[in-house]
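Structure request: DUF1772 domain-containing protein, Streptomyces fungicidicus.
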Amino acid sequence: MLHALQVFTTVVVGVMVGVEFCVAVFVNVITNALPGDNGQLGRSHGARLLGAVMPFWYFTSLGLATVWAVVTWGEPGSALVGTAGGLLIVSVLMSVLLLVPINNRSKTWTPENRPADWQQQSKRWDLYHYLRVAVIVAAFALLVGALV
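Returned structure:
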């Protein structure tokens, strides 16, 4: 049963990392290259869609890593899992404090109501997102290390 928890946790975190990496490296690059207002409209739609799903994914990942860390406390690899859990906490804090406020504003933007600095806010969100992706990639790597 423990092995199933470890594999499931690693897969859940890994898929989350893949989605967030894809947003950072591909989706936002594609939407930014769209003509006219289409990029901004695409980002707003993405903010609504992913803004509804990702909180559950982040908290589920953190919860699973926490259970894994508690169940294996003191065993080989448990420090890696604990550190991964700490990084997932950092990612949640980054999300709540840095990314969600921008996301909540941007999901309501249209070409008619967006603020004059919408592009700067989007660039700031992208920067914070790149940093968060680095944090969750590190957490995922630690979980994989603890699994093997």
